[in-house]
Amino acid sequence: MRPDSRPRPLPFKQESLMDEIVYHDRYTGEDRIEKVYGDKALRWTYGTIAGRLSLSLVVKRTLFSHWYGWRMDQPKTREKIAPFIKEYELDSDEFVRDVDEFANFNEFFFRKLKPEARPIDAAADSVVFPADGRHLCIPDLSKCEGLFVKGEMFDLPTLLQDSALADRYASGSLLLSRLCPVDYHRFHFPAAGVPGESRLINGPLYSVNPIALRQNIHILTSNKRCLTQLETESFGTVLLLEIGATCVGSIQQSYSPGETISKGDEKGYFRFGGSSTMVLFEPGRIQFDADLIENSRQHRELYARMGDHLGNRPANSI
Fold this sequence. Notes:
318 residues, 10 helices, pyruvate, cell membrane, lyase
């Protein structure tokens, strides 16, 4: 079984803090309810006065997430692995290592998968999802109507901390991929090319769960993040961002800057916690898949796995 199993189809999408989180499963064609790890704590933190106070004073701070990441490195946390796999019905046959070989929960969390578990779409003109998760796209940022909150969108110059880049991508396209704690937590290159150095943009560590984003969409532009430029032949310069979140121990880059990479090669991984990645394309460089566009238009995330087709180069692109 896949992450977030035991869902049930629903006829509606979430609109308020207390509603269930609903996403569309590409593989079953159904709308599903997300089974949220730490759901009660999230709703308390972002939905009560006491919770928001603790968020401001403690939870959003890097030290708290580093402490939690350190906890997940302790040998005793091995005890959490088997119950977690059972609770979220993960497929341990996909893992490179046997479950008994993980020294702690963090090692299990950023586990590697067998190549056959995540085949890479082979079409020459395709781009693939960089991570397992729930995805939203914006085909044209200049016409954006919002992601999780209708009519409210994050600020591109703030996100990139580079006014020239923000101008260059102002009418470009964006993919946002949200990884839950139950997901495979390595992120990959969506296209072949040559990546540059990763630039760290420091910030706090708020949750990137929709429960939090409905309260403040600007979390996506303020959280700690890493920015990498990927030079490609078919898609121009593609911007790759990894966004930290509450309880993310760290963002680890495992690629070598300046070396040619293939589509689907590993770029890095998140240590414990839910996280997000973003991919930005220059104007006219990408045509997103129809199911991704349609669900995003309805402000509903699409669940898809790393390596699957997310779009292709338009026929009339440069």
